[in-house]
Amino acid sequence: MAKPARRDNIVVSALRARTNFGALLRRIEDEQRSLVIEKRGTPRAVLLSIRDYVRLAAPEPEVLRILGEQSVAKGTDKLSSLQIDKIIRETRGKQAKCR
């Protein structure tokens, strides 16, 4: 089955959102979509991934966009914060030995 387009919204009732909140959070992140919550057929709220929220709240400067693209190209966008911390510690250790 094809993955839905990025900007498609998931529309759910308030009751379904409440009872399936964890699964809906995962789906929003995995499918990069937003969630429209309806109450009695009327849209009342939107749930966004934190990434989408930050993009809307504070659009990134051009330099950050370029760095992000380079990170994706190199595959470093998949590193966890623990992996990043380890790389930083190792690099600092190497630099200290050179001094």
Please mark out the parts with pLDDT under 50 across 5 or more consecutive residues, or reply none: 1-6
Distance between the termini: 56 Å
**How many strands in all?**
3
| Oligomeric grouping of the chains | single chain
Assign an overall shape.
elongated
**DSSP helix fraction:** 55-70%
What's the total helix number?
5
Structural class, from helix and strand content? alpha+beta
Q: What's the arrangement of strands in the largest beta sheet?
A: 1-2-3
- Assess the beta-strand content as a share of residues: 15-25%
**What is the string of helix and strand elements?**
EHHEEHHH
Mean pLDDT: 86
Rg over C-alpha atoms, rounded to the nearest angstrom: 19 Å
Describe the biggest sheet? 3 strands, mixed
Description of the structure:
Helices cover 57% and strands 17% of the residues. It is elongated and about 65 Å long. Strand 2 (34-39) and strand 3 (42-47) form a beta hairpin. It is of the alpha+beta class. The protein is built from 5 helices and 3 strands; from the N terminus they run E-H-H-E-E-H-H-H. It has helices at residues 14-19, 21-31, 50-57, 62-74, 81-98; strands spanning 9-13, 34-39, 42-47. Strands 1-2-3 form a 3-stranded mixed β-sheet.
